[in-house]
Amino acid sequence: MGCALRIAWDDGLTAYNFGSDHPLAPIRVELTMALARGLGVFDSPGISFAPVEPADDALLELVHDPGYIAAVKQAGTTLHPDDAYGLGTTDNPVFPHMHDAAALISGASVAAARAVWNGEAEHGANIAGGLHHSMRKNAWGFCVYNDAALAIAWLLEQGAKRVAYVDVDVHHGDGVQSMFYDDPRVLTISLHESPLTLFPGTGRPGEIGGPRAEGYSANVALPAGTNDASWLRAFHAVVPPLLREFQPEVLVTQQGCDTHVLDPLANLLLSVDGQRRTYSALHELAKETAGGRWVILGGGGYELVQVVPRAWTHLLAEASGHPLDPGLATPEEWQRFVKERTGETAPLRMTDCRSPDYTPFEDGFDPDDPVDRAIQATRRAVFPCHGIDPML
């Protein structure tokens, strides 16, 4: 094994930019890399950087229709909308060289997967990735090309027989689910805010996979207001049992941090500390169920200064095998950089001063608790397909 963590990085990954008024701003990635660098995360032994090449058309066609790829190229050249492909909407405005920027992100996610599959690193990361909404023939939810689905499809092309995808973004991972809905080689698990209150309106517990893959899509639809303890209870009630049964060759995770209480686009109440507990759990599950092979992608996160840089710096540090003390102060140089780039005051510490813990679901089901009802709905829908008793 070459190293513990291979990070796919190129400065061009910040060119995926829908404009200054759009919530998905590339500054979040820039600030994350600067904070991780300032805290010495990249100096940890076993970290290396992978060169990134844009995904070519043949690679993109593993998950996207050729006509759609052509439309993205055209829209990024003419800057004219194309309603037939979802290009030019409020969520997905066209911008110059859109294809090039999106293809580079897709290439970076495949580079992270390649490093893991080829044994160059245990873990591979592309924090600019995780664009999990785009569909085979259209842009959707801030996502032009679905790099997460592409990384999975590439792994299957290399001969992987079982790939697990765990999505902890506050929004349902609908694009990835759609592309593998009838493929039992891919287990998709998404924990997200209920479709009753949040985009994209999918991800109900009854969405369990197509006729040839029943039980290979699992959705935990959590009520608005879910906090750290309830979220962690739901995660541990569903994700570990399914991964242990499935035994993936590679674990791919989408690490959207828009579950945070400060996120302006959603309604969950997690802290950076609760999110950090999730990163540790996924790291351990990668070791336990996938031989350590873990592909880590970014995702949503719209509190650009207070949340995303701290969350994803903790994520990279965890993946490096050298997690950070949450009580660490953020570097003064980084604080100045934040002020210069955004005009905002940076967070002073790497913690929200929370000590999240949870009571395991197995200790008892509370029918009056909406989170417990969501957990039980998922377990009843999916667990029997895998021979797991949903009541245990």
Description:
The protein contains 11 helices and 8 strands. With 392 residues, the protein is α/β, with parallel strands linked by helices. The chain has a single domain (3-386), classed as 3-Layer(aba) Sandwich (Arginase, Chain A). It has an 8-stranded parallel sheet with strand order 2-1-3-8-7-4-5-6, sandwiched between helices. α1 runs antiparallel to α10, α7 (228-246) packs parallel to α11 (370-382) and α8 packs parallel to α9 (308-320).
Notable features of this structure?
11% strand, alpha/beta, 392 residues, 36% helix, eight-stranded parallel sheet, globular, single chain, Arginase, Chain A
What structural class is derived from the secondary structure elements? Answer: alpha/beta
User: What is the general shape?
Assistant: globular
User: What is the CATH H-level superfamily?
Assistant: Histone deacetylase domain
Would you identify the CATH architecture?
Answer: 3-Layer(aba) Sandwich
Measured by DSSP, the beta-strand proportion falls in: 5-15%
For the biggest sheet, the summary is: 8 strands, parallel
Q: Please give the count of helices.
A: 11
Amount of helix: 25-40%
Q: What order do the helices and strands follow?
A: EHEHHHEHEHEEHEHEHHH
Strand order of the largest sheet: 2-1-3-8-7-4-5-6
Beta strands, count: 8
